User: Fold Large ribosomal subunit protein uL30 from Anaerovibrio slackiae.
Amino acid sequence: MAKLKITLTRSLIGRPETQRKTIKALGLKKLNSSVELPDNESVRGQLHKVEHLITVEEQA
Assistant:
């Protein structure tokens, strides 16, 4: 199964609480922090909600 490397690239200051909680649920804490998560539908849905705050790279 493929993995996704997700990096928080924009600040959460002034963002709605739902977006803050989504970032926390993804495991991201500080600016420029990264996590590797499996590529599945639930993760893709979370990424779509905060796509303007993150960068996503596909890992083999």
In short: The first strand starts at residue 3 and ends at 8. The helical segments are 17-26, 41-49.
